[in-house]
Specification:
With 406 residues, the chain is an alpha/beta fold. The protein contains 14 helices and 20 strands. Strand 3, helix 2 and strand 4 form a beta-alpha-beta unit. It binds pyridoxal-5'-phosphate.
């Protein structure tokens, strides 16, 4: 069977780096569940982090039930039906637009948890400072639907809001946060300096656990923000926690040639199990798991030994080239062309690196966005809902099912 395999020691290594930043700076660091929500690992992560950030009700439930610390919820839009429970289980609830805030404000401000100081409300801002390379990942692109600009906030009724939240980075180094913060200081500094605003959330996309990330400057910036504005500062990284912590292990089902291309059909699919390969697009590192380390002699990169197996790196300079494809019907269900140090055989184990974040969640209900009902329209026009989904379906794709009474 194919398997996503996540390493607890690797997760804890990343988590302890994040904890180090939190302790050195006084900022709070939470895990972005949208990147990694494998809740059975949470007992190992809980000691290192302040909680989770959730993309809506289903992730908020995972945070509340399984992480049991702070839950910072933000969604581009909340359905009316989700608000009552979100008010019960979130510690921070951030809105994407002034229209959503106006829609829910009266209920929010009358809620006992708000009145007792256990619940805080915020608004996502758009500093309009693009630093990334890929438009698909740029919330500051012209016409963005994510966050509001300083002009839109001018003169708005902000009663009850106490958090400014931005998320503009994706796999980026410290200098991009620094330049973004300059834009935020310039356009929103007057709000941060006012006693109304008590929290600033810097979102995710900070590649803090990368060896060359400038963590000392990050700590300085976080300290400066807290002392200048007298606010709490939050970071909500996802990828930085789960990077280099998991692989997807697949197997060769068939081998044949087509128009001179050697095809290897695997028991995993780009479109079903690793959609970022098609969507981003992204080319994962690939290894051939082997019992015979000598086969790596040809390889320019050394084999890695893990749990008694040798992982032989695929490399374009090697002799045996294959197109790795999935078992779905999509013609483009192709992960890529990779070369190996020996001919592949049916049953060989092919290992895709770095599959614990985003890849994994995208195959298990991304962001916990509720799944549409399945319904049938009958001849008389009546509609029968034959299946609806709830957060139990989401959580049960990520961990064990509860034992039902026999
Ligand atoms: C609002 C918000 N916070 C946090 C994150 C986590 O980002 P990353 O996994 O890149 O650190 C995202 C990712 O899209 C996000 O949209």
């Amino acid at each position: 069977m194919a398997q996503y395999l996540v390493s607890l020691p690797a997760l804890e290594r990343n988590a302890s780096i994040l904890q180090g930043v939190a302790e050195a700076s006084g900022a709070r660091v939470v895990l972005a569940l949208k990147a990694f929500s494998l809740w059975p690992t949470f007992p190992s992560l809980r000691p290192y982090l302040s909680g989770c950030c959730a993309s809506g009700l289903w992730e908020a439930r995972i945070s509340h039930e399984h992480f049991q610390k702070e839950t910072l919820t933000y969604s581009p839009a909340y359905p009316d039906a989700h608000l009552p429970e979100l008010l019960e289980i979130s510690s921070h609830l951030d809105f994407n637009s002034l229209s959503q805030w106006a829609r829910f404000r009266e209920d929010c401000l009358a809620h006992p948890r708000y009145l007792s100081g256990d619940l805080h409300f915020g608004i996502r801002i758009n500093p309009r400072h693009s630093t990334g390379q890929t438009p698909l990942y740029d919330p500051c692109a012209p016409g963005s639907r994510l966050g509001i600009t300083s002009e839109q906030l001018d003169g708005a009724d902000m009663r009850g809001l106490s958090t400014l939240h931005f998320h503009t980075l994706c796999e980026q180094p410290y200098r991009d946060l620094e330049s973004t913060m300059k834009a935020v200081d310039r356009d929103f500094g007057h709000l941060l300096a006012s006693p109304q605003f008590t929290d600033l959330n810097l979102g995710g996309g900070h590649w803090i656990t990368k060896p060359d990330y400038d963590r000392a400057s990050l700590v300085n910036l976080l300290q400066r923000l807290q002392s200048t504005y007298q606010i709490r500062v939050w970071l909500e990284p996802g990828e930085a926690l789960a990077i280099h912590t998991g692989v997807l292990r697949a197997h060769v089902l068939d081998l044949f040639e087509s128009d001179g291309v050697q095809q290897a059909i695997l028991d995993v699919s780009a479109t079903c199990h690793m959609p970022d390969v098609l969507e981003m697009p992204y080319r994962p590192e690939v290894y051939l798991a082997d019992q015979a380390p000598s086969a790596s002699d040809e390889s320019p990169r050394p084999a890695v030994t893990l749990a008694g197996e040798s992982y032989l790196p695929a490399d374009d300079s090697l002799a045996h080239r294959y197109r790795l494809g999935g078992p779905s019907c999509l013609a483009g269900d192709v992960i890529g062309d990779y070369s190996f140090p020996r001919p592949l055989a049916i049953g060989d184990c092919i290992v895709f690196d770095d599959m614990a974040h985003y890849t994994f969640v995208k195959s298990t209900m991304f962001n916990g966005v509720p799944h549409p009902d399945l319904a049938i329209q009958h001849h008389d026009g009546s509609v029968e809902v034959v299946r609806s989904f709830d957060s139990f379906d989401f959580a049960s794709r990520l961990g064990p099912l509860p034992h039902l009474p026999s």
